[in-house]
Amino acid sequence: MKRTIEELLGRSSELLYQFRAPDGKKIRLADYDPAWAGDEDVPKKQRKEVAEDLLDQQVDALAEAQKLLYAADTWSLLIILQAMDAAGKDGTIKHVMSGVNPQGCQVFSFKRPSAEELDHNFLWRCWKAAPERGRIGIFNRSYYEEVLVVRVHPEFLAAQRLPEQELGDEFWHSRYDDINCFERHLTRNGTAILKFFLHVSKEEQRQRFLARLEEPEKHWKFSAQDVAERAHWDNYMRAFEDAIGATSTKWAPWYIIPADHKWVSRALVANIITATIKSLNLEYPKIDRDQRAEMAAARRMLENEA
User: Fold this and answer.
1) Apex CA 105: angle with CA 272 and CA 115, to 5°?
2) Strand partners, 255
3) Contact assessment for residue 283 and residue 73, using Cβ atoms and an 8 Å cutoff
4) Among 71, 77, 93, 146, which is disulfide-ready with 122 (CB 3.0 to 4.6 Å)?
5) Of 271, 261, 230, 269, nearest to 34 (Cα)?
């Protein structure tokens, strides 16, 4: 029996299991419905209202969880968002993180590599942007572009001037190994990692591109190159399947989030992030006897001023 969004978001463990990619196993994106929106026996309007209410609740809960993360100063959280164009990465960041203190959150959008970045290994530019302890770091695209876009367009590798090596399965598996080792290193040193693939259908992407063309306030979002990339859709899906299957691990899991309905994807992402921070068992720092004495002295001084 299908669960409603409200029921799923009330059971974080069940929610995490349903949308989490299995560790180290091949996946088929065809097995994941990008238009999933809960129990279809419940009217869509009602499901949407429930999801939006729950998103509001999760935004508040995430704000509290982020304060604890910042105060504890032992863990950081890295959130990676990958998707086809128009899947809603920017909107997810905007809505899910709307209650978080900006001082405790860092967002990086990785575009075409610069000349300096191309002179380093493919992980370098993301490595130096990793969040410090106590903070949430968000990567809008990431080093995964190197096994997604670059795999679909291997001609991009020429700009990296790599030592001669055969461009085959072994090359890509080596990159998956590098990514897994990098993420393992981060988690061993106190960075929890969440990776979200916003799974949008080709038809929904087409409709969103048309909306950008029809609404003047969205013209700035339009890119002819994004539309041209639709010709490579099947290749991108295979690249995502291979990358997710090879790099979804116990320490850095992938979540395949249905993204045809933005109200669904935002509510799910918010819940998973909040549940993950809570699972770290963080505590506010405890003060010792000397600190308590200092605080008592400070209180007396302030009271005496009155």
Assistant:
1) 110
2) 20, 196
3) no
4) 146
5) 261
The continuous run of DSSP H or E covering 277 comes out as helix 262-279
Amino acid (one-letter) located at 88: G
Q: Which of 75, 17, 113 is nearest to 192 (CA)?
A: 75
Strand (E) or helix (H) holding 138: strand 136-140
Q: Is 132 helix (H, G, I), strand (E, B) or coil?
A: coil
- Asked if 264 and 36 touch (Cβ cutoff 8 Å), the reply is yes
- Does residue 27 have a pLDDT over 90? yes
- What tokens appear for 116 in the block? 């300096």
What are the beta bridge partners of residue 80?
139, 195
Given a contact cutoff of 8 angstroms between Cβ atoms, the answer to whether 89 and 81 are in contact is: yes
Residues 139-166 pLDDT 10s:
999 999 999 999 999 999 989 999 877 8
CB neighbour list of residue 100: distance below 8 Å, 6 or more residues apart: 62, 63, 66, 136
User: CA separation (Å) from 15 to 198, 200, 251, 256, 268?
Assistant: 16, 19, 18, 12, 8
What residue type is assigned to position 263 of the chain? W
Asked whether the beta carbons of 111 and 118 are under 8 A apart, the reply is no
- Answer whether 19's CB lies under 8 Å from 197's CB: no
User: What is the distance between the alpha carbons of residues 3 and 18, in angstroms, rounded to a whole number?
Assistant: 11
What does the pLDDT read at residue 224?
82
- The closest of 210, 200, 196 to 261, measured between CA atoms, is 200
Does the predicted TM-score (pTM) go above 0.70? yes
